[in-house]
Amino acid sequence: MDSAAGRDCCPAFPRTHSGPPCKYHGYESEDGHSEGYKKAQSVVIVERCAFAGPLLAGSRVICDWRQGQPLSLYALVCAVTLLNPIQISIHTSQAVLKLRRRSKASFRTSDSSAESNGTVPTTKSTSTLNSSYGASTPPSSVQPNGSMTNVTATKSKGDSTAPPLPPRPSVTPLKSNRNSTVGLGSSGSGVTMRSPGATSPFAPKLTSIADSTVVYQKVLLVYGEVGDPLQRPMAGNITIHHDKDGQAFPPTNWPVSDSYFKALVYLSPGWNQIRFDFTTASLSKDGIHSSYMMLNYLPLNNSPPLQLAIIVGRDSPCTYDAVPERREREGNGLDTAIRKYRMAAHLWQAFTAEQMYRHKFGRRCFRFEEEWQTGTLSLRDWEAGNLKNEIKVHVIRSDKTVAEIQDLQLAQQYAPAAKKGDLYPIASDAIKKYFRLRPGQRQYVAAMFLDSHWDPVVGTIRGHAALGGTSDDLQLAIFGSQALQSYPSCIEEVVPALTDCTRTDTRFVANDLNESGSNWEAVNIGIGAHLHEVGHLFGCPHQESGVMLRDYVRLNRTFLVREHYSTRTQSQGLRICRIEDECGWHRLDILRFRHHPCFRTPVDTILSTLDDSIQFYPIGNGKVIFCAPSGISFIEIYPDDGDELCRYWLEYVSTESRNGGMPWNVTLSEANVRSRLPENKRKGKVKLQVFSGSSRSLTIVDFSELLSKSYIVNLPARQSAPTKDEGLTMNTYNRLTKLPQSFETRPGFKGNKLGFSRLDGSKPEQIILDSVNLQTKLLTSIKVYSGYALDGIAFCYEDGHCQLFGKRGGKAGGDEFFFDTRRGETLSGFYLRAGLWIDGLQILTSLGRKSQIYGNAHGGSGHILMPPAGYTIAGVSGSCGQWIDGFQLIITR
């Protein structure tokens, strides 16, 4: 770099002033000499650089010449990757590069002439990346801040003050979530996509998502409008360009109908800058109308995945039903089946994430397991063999032959079949063997039988069953492949598949339940009905509307604006498919998903896994307290009218809190419950199903029974002691004087019982703690008798007296846990392991201490029994046979 006086130090730093240059730059120092820069910093504007190119045009650079070293171009080139404009503070003596963003509106620009009079042309900005306006910008005064304390305004030689610089024209920000332009080239033109200033009234406006949104799935459903649909409805196409000049994903086209559009956007992990171009033949003005959006795709890795599996017979040819034209054009082998099944799963995910967002629970959704393999979401990747992270589809060979799978007795839709549900255990056994599941390792699997076959002679689908549910640690949904030929295999095929009106040829493929008369309707039934079973997998029952009530026959409306002719309804489809016309998840399904582990996001509070149970305590006056350590999510209400579908409920989930804002305790009155029902259903029995934040539920068969006397215990009247005579021990004094009874009486309330009380010789037992009604009694320890189950517990007092619940079995002498009475430690509750009987017990204290788990620490499921706020333990009730097989707390105010 030539630093001779009178010359620019580098082509990247042109002379931008009229005074003599300093040693390294075309700027004067304060005293007219380059030595004046030993403690000062100068400001230069980079216009062009042979190394950096136009990307640094307009950048503001602050250079520190304390060591008399020229600015390194390498440091400038390092800034190319950063957003422009930027401010760079370089201290060459320490080789430190500090970067700080500056507002675009804070820069001052001048004309390109060295003799500029300060007039600023407003046609173009020098700070835009693609600007062709070749102006160099003189230095402006920089206000001192914490990182630059020595920066001073530059002065001309002999002048006492620096000449005033005109401010840069301000730009009024658009009130929009996107930036639009007209007349831009395609993404392959080599121009880096930025947000230009000029706007077009026909640029696509996204109404479903805001700029800079974080999403958690690879394929995102978006929708919006072009122009004003009410004033000038338009038709055309939306072309979606992805960042990196189409390297991430090729452009895709989506139809615009009456100015509305819906589209699927492919996202790469991290930030994605997406460009939406609108083209139409109805506009006389040439050019493309574009808008931009930044989206951040954050893959989820800490939530359990939904696994995809294809099950084939041990002698299967690995083909599926397809018409001859399809077999010739795209094939019907295993590779094509995997691609189609994978695309269907992405549609499940995009649909569900959008539904969660509409219910104000964010864009949460289940995730899939992925692996590095040939990309299939675009035709380009598949044909070129490009490797990408794609959903892993497990191909599982069953022990059964194809003939056994296609047995008519197993066909769900065959009326005389005797074993309609047996395909479920066949799939379950194959999956458990494939994944080698261990106890406690839960898997969520959506499986498809590839060997399903339409039998036109019998008129049924062999090897098909639509079932979903939970079996031990496997939550499974199964379906057949009878509609697979109609599925899209990539994003480019979604619109053609959902608009294909080709009639179903029942010589080769099935018209499932006479609702798949055309190819696009077969897509709805196949993808939608399988999603229905996935809903069962996640714990959803049938609902009064939505996916769980066969509303998936309208699934196409979620992804398209205009609907085609329907053979199912024998009518023309909707001209505009609005939100209210679409299929959706029911609100109760959404509430189940909100706290399901498969739907967990990084910002969610992880709820306790120690106890996912729900307890209840009737407290009199027609009220019941429900308690759950993971929070109460919602309560379903079922009147006694024979309707199995839930139509009335109470919900306690907040849409604003990360953990859902669920209360731990909920007090419910009978009047409140019955007021939720219609007038003609308020009398009679009412069933409740209470759901916790851990997705567990508790069923109350008859709410009125909880309010009956069977849950109320008459406690002995409380007794108080007079002042103790110092000459007697407390126990002796009590026996001599006999404590007077108080007039205060308190009822006790039983909580829900753990255990089934079904052991041989089981008898009910109940004790009221002496320390509750005798103030002079001090509970000092608890003895626990246990072996492989809980045999008994004894409450021991200071005077040596013990109250035994159950038997003294198991370990000889039992195990004793002592309270720290000097610190006022008392019993606050129990943690129990329980199933058919009580397997184990742990003692919880008021100081937060816990005993070990006595008995079987791994038997049954965990339950925390602890009185709600304002109540204390008054005793225990239950039953005992060979060991304790029933246990419940008695609480009092």
UniProtKB/TrEMBL annotation:
Residues 180-192 have a biased composition (Low complexity). This is Jacalin-type lectin domain-containing protein. It comes from Endocarpon pusillum. One of its GO terms (cellular component) is cytoplasm. Pfam families: Jacalin, Metallopep. Signal peptide: none annotated. Residues 106-155 have a biased composition (Polar residues). Residues 744-893 form the Jacalin-type lectin domain. Residues 106-196 are annotated as: Disordered.
